[in-house]
Design brief:
By secondary structure, the chain is of the alpha/beta class.
Length: about 550
């Protein structure tokens, strides 16, 4: 009896150990009745029939474990909606526009050899490596599959950025540019430029303004009695005496351009009024402390000889000054007022008397809802629109479609440059109505639709159908409603040189490749925020692609 008992205990111990080794215990998230019955049935069959070998036992246990995992995964998938309802979390893709990821869209994969991203077009099957699991890009799949042939491919792929950088660096600058850079770097030690051209002097001025080296002392290098035009791109460090020297040393100036001139005062403007008797064009950016009294005195002095006036970032330019410039300077051909905090509908009435305007800019009024509204703007454009070649309404968020259909379409027949960036109330129907059968206008050369968030495919298709032969620059930044079908139509713009498609989610490698191949004059494409454009998208010589994610993800970081 003891022997039999020992045998039974040994048999039971072997069965327990075999069960522990062969049948794993899984705790599913939600176990159904069918799962429990199948598991129990499998255990009873194993005990009753026995196993011929340990390998058969392991195979049976693995199959039962696989079935249990499949059941658990299906139960987890079925509870996904319940989990979202309980937590209140909804993924961002629920709010994505339909045009971002259409059905059958391309996919981005990583090459198993060179580790570079590449696009797998919809309906195609990419090549695989020797294992049959990893995917290969077009460069790696074109050669032989052995390791010796794959090595050169990988090296060439990984050094793509180095090759592009070498192409840029191989463009040796001219001796003139090298001298200009050297002079700009040692501007504090230069006593005089001597006899150099105006183009070279303008380049030096831009470089030292970028380096914040333009001040009261260095400005003397750019003041010459023979000059009739002067542009200073950063007057932040120029004090009042340096600004007064402009009129003292350059009395024949006809065009004056001062950017970031926050230190200019009424006394300086009055001094210009007395000494710059031939002034015809004035561009000021940031004259915070100049009052309307100084501007009115200047306008009355220059009178009919005044042709261009541009003002930006002014907080003391009032309705009286606008009335003065419109009455005293009736020959104005260019008037641009931007970011003037007091600008409202009242300003538009005197501007409507300037029938000789060829360029008009009214951007970023004081208030989003009360700055410039639709009805006064329609009256203004009907009065002066027949001669306009450039119109800038950037940031006028209160304007509606009537400005496009009732003012620009019938009156602006000579328009070539249109900027409606940030006009959020313009709809797809309004823009499409503007360009559809607009036969009196021969076509736009510059079109800026940036951040017109309500525009869809019909708006872009109508604009391209009207101006595809003349369009030179196009900006459709942040138009998320656009789909891939509308972007494909960009290939019709054969004369396009600059394009901004940043934050247009439907843009991918396939669309950009087709566009690059058909537009041979294209010089720059801006693609910030388009994660579906990879570094594998083919480009060509002379084309600059700005904002590709793959060009910036491998930035070196220093370890501390």
């Amino acid at each position: 009896m003891s022997v039999d008992g020992e045998d039974e205990s040994m048999v039971s111990a072997e069965e327990d150990s075999s069960e522990d080794d062969l049948i794993p215990i899984a705790v599913p998230v939600r176990t159904t009745r069918a799962t429990r019955s199948r598991t129990s049935a499998a255990v009873t069959v194993d005990k009753s029939e026995g196993f011929s070998s340990k390998a058969d036992a392991k195979a049976s246990a693995a199959s039962s474990k696989k079935n249990a995992r499949k059941k658990v995964d299906s139960s987890d998938d079925s509870n996904g909606e319940d989990f979202q309802d309980i937590t209140g979390y909804v993924s961002r893709s629920k709010f994505s526009h339909k045009g971002r990821l259409p059905q059958g869209a391309n996919k981005i994969e990583f090459c198993s050899r060179c580790r570079a991203r590449f696009t797998v077009k919809a309906g195609t099957t990419p090549a695989t490596d020797n294992s049959g699991i990893g995917l290969l890009c077009a460069a790696c799949s074109g050669g032989s599959s052995d390791a010796s042939a794959a090595a050169p491919k990988a090296i060439k792929k990984s050094s793509r950025r180095k090759i592009q950088k070498a192409e840029v660096e191989c463009q040796v600058p001219s001796l003139q540019d090298l001298c200009i850079q050297k002079i700009a770097g040692c501007i504090e030690d230069v006593e005089a430029f001597g006899d150099i051209s105006d183009i070279s002097m303008a380049k030096i001025c831009k470089i030292i303004c970028r380096n914040r080296s333009l001040n009261t002392d260095t400005i003397q290098l750019f003041l010459d009695p023979r000059h009739t035009e002067l542009s200073l791109y950063d007057c932040t460090d120029i004090e009042a005496p340096g600004l007064l020297n402009i009129a003292q040393f350059c009395p024949k100036i006809r065009s004056l351009n001062l950017i970031r001139c926050g230190r200019i005062l009424d006394e300086t403007i009055n001094y210009y009024t007395e000494h710059l008797t031939e002034l015809c064009s004035l561009n000021l950016s940031g004259p915070f402390m100049v009052t309307d009294a100084a501007f009115i005195k200047l306008f009355e002095k220059v009178g009919e000889q005044f042709r261009q006036f541009c003002l930006e970032h002014s907080y003391r330019f009032t309705f009286k000054a606008v009335t003065a410039v419109c009455q005293s300077c009736p020959q104005l051909s260019r008037l641009e007022l931007g970011k003037c905090t007091l600008m409202d509908d009242e300003w538009l009435a005197p501007i409507s008397n300037l029938t000789g305007l060829t360029s008009l800019g009214l951007s970023y009024p004081k208030d989003a809802g009360k700055g410039l509204t639709t009805e006064p703007m329609v009256k203004l454009l009907l009065a002066v629109g027949s001669g306009l070649g450039s119109l800038d309404l950037e940031g006028c968020v209160a304007l509606e479609d009537a400005v496009l259909t009732e003012a620009i379409r019938p009156s602006c027949v000579r328009l070539e440059r249109l900027n409606i960036s940030g006009c959020e109330e313009f709809t797809t129907e309004g823009v499409a109505a503007l360009f559809t059968d607009w036969k009196v206008n021969r076509g736009l050369s510059v079109l800026n639709l940036r951040k017109c968030i309500m525009l869809g495919d019909d708006a872009l298709n109508a604009a391209i159908a009207h101006s595809h032969e003349t369009l030179d620059e196009l900006d459709i930044n942040s138009l998320e409603e656009l789909t891939k079908d509308a972007l494909v139509s960009l290939s019709r713009c054969e004369n396009l040189t600059k394009l901004d498609v940043s934050w247009v989610r439907a843009m991918d490698d396939e669309v950009l490749e087709r566009f690059v191949q058909s537009n041979l004059k294209l010089e720059q494409v801006v693609v910030w925020g388009n994660h579906r454009i990879t570094e594998c998208c083919p480009t060509r010589k002379g084309l600059r692609v700005v904002g590709r994610e793959g060009d910036y993800v491998t930035l070196p970081f220093r370890r501390f």
